Amino acid sequence: MTLKERIKNDIKEAMRAKDTVRRDTLRNLSAAIKQIEVDERRELNDADVESVLMKYVKQREDAIVQFKEAGRDDLVAKEEAEIALVRTYLPEPMDDAELEKTLQEIIAEVGAESMKDMGKVMGKAKAVIGSRADGGRISQTVKRLLGQ
Q1: Which of 1, 11, 43, 87 has the most CB atoms at less than 10 Å from its CB?
Q2: What is the CA radius of gyration of the chain?
Q3: What is the rounded average pLDDT for all residues in the chain?
Q4: Euclidean distance between CA atoms 10 and 137, whole angstroms
C-alpha cells in the first residue's frame, strides 16, 4: 500500500471513529498532495509524498513558534498534535551519530574538501537521506564536517 493510499484509508477510519482532529489533519495532507499532482500533472510516489509531509511538519513547527510568542497555548497544543500524527507516516528520523556517519561517507564519495563543495554534498545527501533528516540539520552537519 502506498503512503497516499494509507492516508486515504486512515481518513475513512477517522471519520468512522469520529476523530475530527485526525480526520481534518489527514484531509489537509491529502489536499496538499492532490494540489501538487494537479499543478505538476503527475502522480506522486512515496518519496514525493514524504517531502510533502516534511513540508507540512515544518509549517506546523513555524506556526508553533508564532503561537508561543502570542501566548496561544491552545493553538500550540493543536499544532503539536498534528505534528505527532504526521510523523507517524514518516520514516524513523536519523540520530546525530548516524547522520554524521552517512554524511562523512558522502563527503568521501564526492571528494569534497571545502565549503565550495557543499552543493555537491547536499545534492547527494538529499538523495541518500531523503526525509529521514531535515535539510537544515543536514546543512548544519555538512558545514561542521567541512570545517566552516
Answers
A1: 11
A2: 18
A3: 93
A4: 30
The grid coordinates of residue 12 equal 475513512
Q: Which bin fits 73, alpha (ψ -120 to 50), beta or left (φ > 0)? A: alpha
Question: Residue type for 84, please?
Answer: A
Measured at the CA of 9, the angle between CA 131 and CA 88, to 5 degrees, comes to 30
Return the HEC string of 15-73: HHHCCHHHHHHHHHHHHHHHHHHHHHCCCCCHHHHHHHHHHHHHHHHHHHHHHHHCCCH
> Residue 42 is placed in which grid cell?
503527475
Higher-confidence position of 117 and 6: 6
Cell of 57: 511538519
Q: How confident is the model at residue 133 (pLDDT cuts 50, 70, 90)?
A: confident
pLDDT (tens digit per residue) in 88-129: 999 998 999 999 999 999 999 999 888 988 999 999 998 899
Residue 90 DSSP symbol: S
DSSP state of 115: G
Helical axes 20-40 vs 73-87, angle rounded to 10° = 60
